[in-house]
Batch of 2 targets.
Target 1
Amino acid sequence: MKFISIALLLLSPAILLAQQEPDKIEIEERISEDEVPDLVKQRMSMLFDTKAKIKWYQERNESFQNFEAKVVKNKRRYSIEFDTLFNIQDIEVEYDLDELSEETKTGLTNYFDSNYSSYKIRRIQLQLSGDFESLAKYCKEGILDQLRIRYEIEFEGKEEDSFIYYEGLFEKSGSLVKRRHIILNTSDNISY
């Protein structure tokens, strides 16, 4: 019995560490169009009008480096992320809370009310993923068929006596997929 107690005592820090959520630490740096691989530029031209002004970024963290294009179309902000093989990882489109479905708003409200004594939503992005043809169809025609729809939400949630800044990924139902603590260095992160 003492052996089991000692083993549990020794393992408890490892168990706690395994349950901790990874922090979001990303550096986003503006780059020139000349620094963007031709394949990435070619794919962007298939998604958006070539007249659209595209701002290019390189995003890095401890485990990846990718390219990101930001563009405004019909007064809506789009962010297109490309993985290391230059495939589209996802497209994120900025949304307001009142644009979400009632099902999504109800699910989000239930999540936030049951997990935080107080909260403030800072940014909502519709996150679309799927094959290239389906993503292109969305960018050209606004058709969401065959796309996985999720929401990436930046929010502050009050835990105990302080607010903590998080990024949460939510299903259309409003249920949480994952949550990461955001570590900001305002000089390294660029907003639109």
Target 2
Amino acid sequence: MREPSMLVRESAVEQLEERQNDWADSNDEKSNTQLRVLIIGYGLQCVMHMFCVCVEYRKRSNRIQISPYSMEDQYLESGSQRFCIVLFGINVFFVVFYVALACVAGIAGCCCFHCIIAVLYAVAKHLLLSC
């Protein structure tokens, strides 16, 4: 026969594992959806940027064949350059942000894993004692 304290520990571990599995399952769906939205949004931004670059390339190649720069062409070119710089800045921001986020998540997962398990165990223990 097992001791009563051992039975309590085993049931606590089982309940903790069940809660962790339930939490992981519900969390995966939400994070997958958010990740898909971010990837699709970033992809659309990249497609829009490629479209703008192609349009600008065609304008410049046609302009070189037709005539030298006019005042209107210079104004349009400066606006197009500003737009490309803004898109480039947004791309750089997202790349830096997601690399930093991945690093923080990796460090947190490695360094705080024991703390996370301890907190989950304490919550499970508290819930068992309150029942």
